[in-house]
Amino acid sequence: MPAVKDNDVYLVDYSNERNSDGSYSFNYELSDGQSRTEKGALKDVKDADGNDVKIISVTGQYSFVAPNGQKYVTFYISDEKGYRVEKMMNAEAIGRSLDTTFDAVDVKSDDDLAIVTTTESEIELDS
Fold first, then answer.
1. Other CB atoms closer than 10 Å to residue 101's CB: what's the count?
2. 84-95, pLDDT tens digit by residue?
3. In 10 A of CB 94, how many CB atoms?
4. What is the pLDDT of residues 4-31, one digit of tens each?
5. Residues near 104 by Cβ (< 8 Å), separated by ≥ 6?
6. Which residues of 45-61 are buried (b: 16+ CB within 10 A; e: fewer)?
7. How many angstroms separate the CA atoms of 87 and 70, rounded?
């Protein structure tokens, strides 16, 4: 492994799983506090003409440390309704460490996400 300088950003954790059914999951964490976790699975939906089609439904989160030193996390969903940021908040608002994996939140639908986010305060990135 090459020598790391104090200001170098390096990979702390990484996993990547691809399954034969088309589902996947991955996560990574960098030494500067950035991280991302994502899961995707095939989902049966109807297209505009009423035909059965399969799409990839994705849930995930990413986090970063802002210039003000606060760690922020964004939860997102991408499916037949498009890409949507469900909530953005700071680590204190979540009430848990962002170092835990996305499985701890396990957002599978909009209803599950509401349980996680209904009592948290929203944040603004302006400093």
1. 16
2. 999 888 866 665
3. 19
4. 666 799 999 999 999 999 999 999 999 9
5. 96
6. eeeeeeeeeeeebbbbb
7. 16
